[in-house]
Amino acid sequence: MTLSRLYRIARQRLRSVLYQHAADEELTRELALHVELLVEEFQADGMSRDEAQRAARRALGNLPLLADECRDHRRVSWLLDLQQDLVHGLRMLRVNPGFTAVAVLSLAIGIGANTAILSVIDAVMRAGLPIPQDDRLVVVRTFPLDDPSQETHALLDDYTTWRDASRSFDVMGLALGLQADFGADGDTAPAERIQGQAVTGGTLSALGVQPFLGRVFAESETDIGPPSPVVVISHRLWQRRFGSRGDILGQTARLDRVTRTIVGVMPPAFHYPNEGVEYWVPLAATEPSRLPNLQRFFVVTARLKDDVTIEQAQSDMDIIAARQAQEDPDRHEGWGVRVKPVREAMYGWTRERLLILEAAVFLVSDRAKNITGVLVPVDGGYVAQ
After folding, report:
1. Which tens digits make up the pLDDT trace of 251-262?
2. Same-domain pairing of 14 and 47
3. How many CA atoms lie within 13 A of 23 on its CB side?
4. What is the pTM of this model?
5. In this structure, are 162 and 29 located in the same domain?
6. Measured between alpha carbons, how far is 78 from 81 in angstroms, rounded to an integer?
7. CB neighbours of 367 closer than 8 A, spacing ≥ 6?
């Protein structure tokens, strides 16, 4: 297509929009000219004028339909229809202010609620964690093979086996949720029940977060044997309980009657595995043979090696799980292992609930729209049709 032809097409379409009536009148004259030429042709063949006019109309067909087809070739009918609908809609809204208020309110509720829910979904599923390279951080969970949707945590010997046999992780750590009565030595404030975690040094190493003050646990403080009486506290607890004291390191606090030395304060944005956790104490991973637990309540966190994908780590863990089932069927037969990104593990449960809420909001707003759509103003009121 040449440039001159493109220019003619653009000019014709612009003219059809800006000067619609003139273009329609021109089309009407052109069709009338075609009819007249056919009439003259049929008259030349010996027909009377009335017969020639009827024959010309039969030859051309439905003239209004033909005119609409000619307008469609301008490729601007959709814009003209939109303009007509807008003008008609605005006129109806101006004439019926009560109906307008109901319709605008319904649309505002629907649009606002849908936007809010979608924003929450996007923020939850896309927002990064306050952890360096959080895309490399995973949790390792177990699940019954006969019901894969029922995930749970790990046995103690799961952790020791995975840590020693896996080739997919740089570091792996163990954690256990705790609650303790917390009170600072020499503090006149009453003790408070707060949530915390007992963790191995591998957990904090896997997270890779540098403390705001002090340090995290050394490996020697979580070796097999009695754990070291130290504690790392959250930034929020440091502010609330200690008034952001600059000399906090080395101070002592009592957790369930155990005096512990504060060795670190985590950054303000650090909340792992949830915002309720306010302290971390060392967890000594006792040998499984000395502690025959059958409860799957140990949280296993690991950091992938740089050249390993989650799929590769999953394959590695599947092999280890199969070997565990053969070597110790009483503990491991019928159980599988799943490697999940830590973001999905922390927030994945919210996805289904938020989508259900989004569907509910959509149905409510759609119902409101349908109700306003069938209200017809009659004598100052509204009648549903």
Report:
1. 888 888 888 899
2. yes
3. 20
4. 0.58
5. no
6. 5
7. none
